Amino acid sequence: MAAAKLSQHFAKTDINITVVESTAIGTVGVGEATIPTLRRFYQSLGMSDMDVMRKTSATVKLGIEFKNWHRLNTSFIHPFGIFGHEANGIRFHHYWLKLQALGDASLLEEYSLGIAMARANKFTFPAENPSSPLSVFDWALHFDASKFATLMRDYALAHRVQHIDAKIESIQLNPDNGFIQSLLLDSQEPLAGDLFIDCTGFNGLLISGALKTGYVDWSQWLLCDRALAVQSEVVGEPAVRTVSLAHTAGWQWKIPLQHRQGNGHVYSSQFMDEAEAEAILLQHTEGKVLHQPRKFSFTAGRRTQAWNKNCIAIGLAAGFLEPLESTSIALIETGIEKICGSFPIPYFNQERVDYFNQVTATEWERIRDFIILHYKANQRTDSDFWQHCRAMQLPDSLQQKISAYQERGDLLHYPWEIFHPDSWLAIYSGFGFYPNTYNHNVDRLNTDYLRQSLAAMRKSIADAVAGLPTHQEFINEHCKVQAA
Ligand SMILES: Cc1cc2nc3c(=O)[nH]c(=O)nc-3n(C[C@H](O)[C@H](O)[C@H](O)COP(=O)(O)OP(=O)(O)OC[C@H]3O[C@@H](n4cnc5c(N)ncnc54)[C@H](O)[C@@H]3O)c2cc1C
Fold first, then answer.
1. What is the pLDDT of residues 67-102, one digit of tens each?
2. For the whole model, what pTM was predicted?
3. Probe ligand 1: pick from 316, 327, 332, max atoms within 8 Å of CB?
4. Where does residue 53 fall: left (phi above 0), alpha (psi -120 to 50 degrees), or beta otherwise?
5. N or C: which end of the chain has fewer CB within 10 A?
6. Would the CB of 79 count as within 6 Å of ligand 1?
């Protein structure tokens, strides 16, 4: 992804880009759920949604369904879209909260088109006309990440990027300033460069191995440190949402592709051993499993500096946040975007490096806080893990956000935050967490009129969804992968 985008960014310069990767080592081989930013990323390279979907065996993702997170036998959805409509500069949930205070029984999710479509397993393209009821949602992909990597490689190779399949054996530093001077490969002469993008995965061969950059450890808040992943045969129609099923010491993802389903159990080794985690994963995997579960260990956190000297870490080399909200690939995109923004001219100075690091740290912390909220807000009483999560002390940045919501119903949106206020609202309300009050400016609106407006909104959503094709019908018509 970095080579593809940077080849486009530097197309009119004489900069040479070389990718070194080792087929002998391979890639991490997981990462199948995305958020809508991925679509903007490939669109910026001139690729169309349907073409990418066909080439990556993709299905549509309208959001994530969280099962058993709030309590056992509960379900809520975090959609890519809004709840209701803001009016008179006041967010919708304040109007809804007022009616709730008057005894109205409608659920907040009845005002989300994205959720209604996800629950009905239906899909169509969002309407371009903003007054259409079908304009208020966004969507992303569940895809085969290896096939997407092939698309990126083909693009890069067609745009002057050199490719070397070799193993990096060691890294030479400049003795004067400690910058990376060259990579020693198993197959060739040393490969020199001015700037190195470290995409070597969890090991961070350059950023950590060579430059000894530190790591900010967030495991006091994010206890999950293991994952087991397994693919299975498709059973039934693909869901138009990722399913995240909470277990006693973590959670399981279910990600449908056209040709198979991805499943994985993310758990805390402090609270569960591997054998139990594997048994739970297999017990909750529908369809025949296609291989032995693959194992991963990680520590939630980020590099202290994503950009150190002449090396920028992207992807797993930059840090790890569990895939609960499918944010790793999105952080790759924003990292690449920031690299492009750092090079309006092909030189850099320390000021640019510092700015890059500051923004990167902020972006990661915002996502960290959002993920922590999912754990903190649980009301499960059936396991030590969930009780431990509920009791944890929060980072100040998250505590301030929660207080603003609880005390005033405010949904703060900080700079560099990927998730918008409606995403926060989806999680708060999914956990049954509502503010103590609403914005009393809504009292200016006649209550009967408010009731009628909200009823009309619910009806418009239900009517719009009733006429839509199913997810499978949509795939069959627009992007079905043909059997070879
Ligand atoms: C369990 C799990 C589930 C995930 N789920 C999601 C998800 O649903 N959504 C999401 O957005 N993200 C997810 N991720 C994250 C996602 O998988 C990664 O962000 C993404 O795959 C990018 O990985 P990467 O390129 O940084 O590392 P890798 O895929 O590990 O690639 C590293 C590359 O470096 C090369 N390399 C390493 N060492 C050397 C060497 N010595 N010499 C030469 N080459 C070398 C390798 O050959 C490889 O090409 C998940 C991650 C995990 C662990």
1. 999 999 999 999 999 999 999 999 999 999 999 999
2. 0.97
3. 316
4. alpha
5. C
6. no
